[in-house]
């Protein structure tokens, strides 16, 4: 199981039964992070930011989309016609806006926190403490939001839940027993059979060395963590 | 001056500024309300009801039962969807789906990529520099939300000392943007930010701004 936010894309594809049409084994292309393949010219043409994931839509002249949230919204717009995992901008504009708000919240608010807590090249006790405090605060935002709610936005599972659950589940040093609403919600999200299937689609990372799980991460050799950080965020390793 | 369709809670920051730029570019009547960051007004109960994250900016749409929108990028997209019917500063998801998607991609890039990670900024500026080679605008044939979102971080970096001499495309693009009269006007609302202004602020206020923007407390 891969708990990376990049995995939100295979989850969405599975939830919409798209993966069975497109044969995931062929379509999920892993890149070698060690060889910095994501910085190669051919990939930079697809994604000038040189990061994963990127989606190529063969039905639209090989149109390339990068940024996981933009991919989710693209998938929803073009393939989720029944609005099973998303909200419609025209018929449900407020819910659509709320969905966007939570997607941006996850991207801007939590992502850098996760990085500093887990992958910063140097250990800076002050920074670690501050980011731990910030992650607790952010988790509290979710806990409060989920009070009396089954899902983050509107009456059903949506892109906001996919993205946020993957982000939230990755946070270290958070005892989810202290946050009953989040705990219940995470269990519901990960119990969905298609979501579970999407989480187990071959990882976008080189599988053997870099499989992410919340449990294994602390046991991973530091050099491997740093290599992932360098690939994820463009940092150079501190020697 | 017609009555405001929207109220914007904002203090001076790149996140808030992109919204005022969009509102000005579209001639939308709005009211701006600043909060006292020193008194942590953004963490008060009444404000947390409309923005559970306790940050700025937040937009209230009076034409839609005071619907609240938070996260600056979500606000930009909301403004574009409901007020930019002629698509002057945005792209249409139905009639221009690829440009709409590209606009989203660059907004997310600017949202998560440039803002919170200072160390990364050099590489990220290079990505923009590359994108702007042979292009006037980040996405499509005209000024859009993607440019609005991204330029303020470059502009802000200039204020704290970034030298754009290595980024000629960025310089030209930035020049194009700040010479637009409505964008220039918006950059004075609520307050024009430049080095002199920032440096003259009392230290408690700059710290409060830093804390509100990024959640940082300054190291003593």
TrEMBL record, chain A:
Pfam families: GST_C, GST_N. SUPFAM superfamilies: GST C-terminal domain-like (SSF47616), Thioredoxin-like (SSF52833). Residues 92-222 form the GST C-terminal domain. Residues 1-83 form the GST N-terminal domain. Belongs to the GST superfamily. PANTHER family: GLUTATHIONE S-TRANSFERASE GSTA (PTHR44051:SF8), GLUTATHIONE S-TRANSFERASE-RELATED (PTHR44051). This is Glutathione S-transferase. It comes from Clathrus columnatus.
From TrEMBL, chain B:
Belongs to the GST superfamily. This is Glutathione S-transferase. SUPFAM superfamilies: GST C-terminal domain-like (SSF47616), Thioredoxin-like (SSF52833). Transmembrane segments: none annotated. InterPro entries: Glutathione-S-Trfase_C-like (IPR010987), Glutathione-S-Trfase_C_sf (IPR036282), Glutathione_S-Trfase (IPR040079), Glutathione_S-Trfase_N (IPR004045), GST_C (IPR004046), Thioredoxin-like_sf (IPR036249). Residues 3-87 form the GST N-terminal domain. Residues 68-203 form the GST C-terminal domain.
């Amino acid at each position: 199981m891969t708990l990376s936010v990049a995995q939100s894309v295979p989850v969405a594809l599975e939830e919409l039964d798209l993966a069975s049409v497109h044969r995931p084994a062929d379509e999920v292309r892993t890149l070698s992070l060690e060889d910095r393949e994501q910085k190669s010219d051919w990939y930079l043409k697809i994604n000038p930011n040189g990061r994963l994931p990127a989606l190529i839509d063969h039905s639209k002249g090989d149109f390339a989309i990068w940024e996981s949230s933009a991919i989710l919204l693209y998938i929803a717009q073009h393939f989720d016609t029944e609005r099973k995992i998303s909200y419609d901008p025209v018929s449900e504009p407020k819910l659509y806006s709320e969905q966007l708000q939570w997607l941006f919240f996850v991207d801007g608010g939590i992502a850098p926190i996760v990085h500093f807590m887990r992958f910063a090249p140097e250990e800076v006790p002050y920074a670690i403490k501050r980011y731990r405090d910030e992650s607790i605060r952010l988790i509290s935002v979710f806990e409060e939001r989920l009070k009396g709610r089954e899902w983050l936005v509107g009456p059903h599972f949506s892109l906001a839940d996919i993205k946020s659950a993957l982000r939230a589940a990755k946070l270290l040093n958070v005892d989810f027993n202290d946050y009953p609403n989040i705990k219940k919600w995470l269990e519901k999200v990960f119990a969905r059979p298609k979501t579970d299937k999407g989480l187990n689609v071959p990882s976008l990372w080189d599988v053997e060395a870099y499989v992410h799980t919340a449990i294994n991460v602390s046991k991973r050799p530091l050099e491997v963590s740093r290599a992932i950080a360098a690939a994820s965020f463009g940092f150079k390793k501190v020697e | 001056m017609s009555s405001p369709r929207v109220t914007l809670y904002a203090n001076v920051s790149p996140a808030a500024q992109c919204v005022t730029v969009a509102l000005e570019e579209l001639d939308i009547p709005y009211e701006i309300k600043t909060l006292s960051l020193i008194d942590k007004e953004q963490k008060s109960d009444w404000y947390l009801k409309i923005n559970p994250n306790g940050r700025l900016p937040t937009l209230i749409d009076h034409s839609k039962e005071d619907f609240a929108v938070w996260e600056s990028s979500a606000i930009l997209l909301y403004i574009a969807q409901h007020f930019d019917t002629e698509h002057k500063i945005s792209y249409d998801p139905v009639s221009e789906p690829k440009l709409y998607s590209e606009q989203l991609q660059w907004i997310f890039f600017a949202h998560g990529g440039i803002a919170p990670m200072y160390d990364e900024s050099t590489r990220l500026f290079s990505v923009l520099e590359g994108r702007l080679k042979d292009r006037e605008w980040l996405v499509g044939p005209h000024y859009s939300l993607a440019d609005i979102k991204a330029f303020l971080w470059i502009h802000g970096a200039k204020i704290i000392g970034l030298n754009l001499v290595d980024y000629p495309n960025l310089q030209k693009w930035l020049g194009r943007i700040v010479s637009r009269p409505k964008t220039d006007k918006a950059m004075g609302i609520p307050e024009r930010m430049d080095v002199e202004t920032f440096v003259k602020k009392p230290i408690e206020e700059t710290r409060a701004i830093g804390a509100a923007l990024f959640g940082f407390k300054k190291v003593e």
